[in-house]
Specification:
Layout lengths: L6 H6 L21 E2 L7 E4 L5 E5 L5 E5 L4 E7 L17 E9 L2 E8 L7 E8 L8 E9 L11 E5 L2 E6 L6 E6 L13 E4 L8 E9 L2 E8 L11 E7 L20 E4 L5 E12 L2 E10 L5 E12 L2 E3 L2
Parallel strand pairs: 1-5
Antiparallel strand pairs: 2-3, 3-4, 4-5, 6-7, 7-8, 8-9, 10-11, 11-12, 12-13, 14-15, 15-16, 16-17, 18-19, 19-20, 20-21
């Protein structure tokens, strides 16, 4: 699962970021789902055959399939076995937080391998002709971080902008970063500048799980703030900012920089739906959707798939 310094440190950061939400704000319940709903850090995509696939943390990149976005079935794993190089970063070769996309006639899957408590981390890349589990060819490390770096190479998110390919990533260790990728290899351009997109004012800089969406004139940066992976005690929430440039600066609707703790609150805990985060966006049938996990307070905090349609008002994503 996603990597953070420690829940104790993160709790100290909760009061740092003011919220734009009032007590009257209500959040939507996710789309009603049936079947296999258990998931963490989902990335969802509509395949060429019309089905939807969701990959996630867990297993060897766990997979779910659906024909209608409502009913989901377990589809095994992206890989039959972990590539050997994963063990350099995790003793159990446990991959986290994948991101799925399609370009140049192939599906591209990015994912992270790391261990708790270290930023000795890597983002890998694989390709497939169909996007289905069991069809992936791994191509090794696309980008990495070491203990000497001030960033953490996990939680990948791909975006194409101005004819170039970019990878957003990051978790704690100063937040969200971005590098340019070589479109031929899908890996970081050698010596690429590491851009800084979002962070919090003080340690442990609890910002992670980036997803970037292009809409109209702007690029929208969605990110997860606060504590993940604690069941019903999770305080995850999703914030968003926008920029005219994919590399930033990203600001919220009040003009606050996401490099200084800014970000409009888009989705937070409500009712049984605790700690929404680990988000990604996808488009299907002319609609834009937000996929995320939440912890179900009515099911002992089990992480489940949340899907909500995103709409737009005055240049900002909303749910109604």
């Amino acid at each position: 699962m996603k990597h953070r310094l420690a829940a104790v440190l993160a709790a100290a950061a909760l009061a740092l970021l003011p919220t734009t939400a009032s007590a009257e704000v209500t959040y939507p319940d996710p789309l009603p789902l049936t079947g296999q709903q258990v998931i963490h850090d989902p990335t969802v995509h509509q395949l060429k055959d019309g089905r939807y696939v969701a990959y996630s943390t867990g297993g060897v990149i766990g997979a779910r399939l659906s024909t209608d976005l409502h009913h989901w079935t377990d589809a095994g794993n992206a890989f039959a076995a972990p590539p050997s190089w994963w063990y350099d970063y995790n003793a159990t070769a446990d991959p986290w937080a994948p991101d799925l996309g399609y370009r140049d006639g192939r599906y591209w899957l990015y994912y992270a391998v790391s261990s708790w408590g270290t930023n000795h981390s890597a983002i890998g890349v694989a390709t497939s002709p169909t996007g289905l589990p069991g069809t992936w060819t791994d191509h090794g490390k696309a980008f990495g971080s070491e203990k000497t770096d001030s960033w953490n190479a996990i939680d990948p998110a791909l975006i194409r902008a101005d004819g170039k390919l970019w990878l957003a990533f990051g978790s704690y260790w100063t937040g969200i970063r971005m590098v340019e990728l070589d479109p031929e290899t899908g890996k970081a351009v050698p010596g690429a500048t590491v851009h800084h997109l979002a962070t919090r004012p003080d340690a442990p800089y609890a910002v992670e799980g980036a997803s970037i969406l292009h809409h109209g004139r702007y690029y929208y940066l969605f990110a997860s703030y606060d504590i993940c992976c604690a069941g019903v005690d999770s305080t995850y929430k999703i914030r968003v900012g926008r920029s005219a440039s994919v590399t930033g600066p990203y600001t919220d609707s009040e003009g606050r920089s996401m490099l200084d703790g800014g970000g409009d609150l888009l989705l937070a805990s409500h009712g049984r739906y605790v700690g929404p985060g680990g988000e990604s966006t996808f488009r299907a049938h002319g609609k834009t959707w937000l996929a995320y996990h939440y912890y179900d307070a009515n099911d002992d905090g089990t992480p489940k798939l949340g899907l909500d349609e995103l709409r737009w008002r005055a240049g900002w994503p909303v749910f109604k």
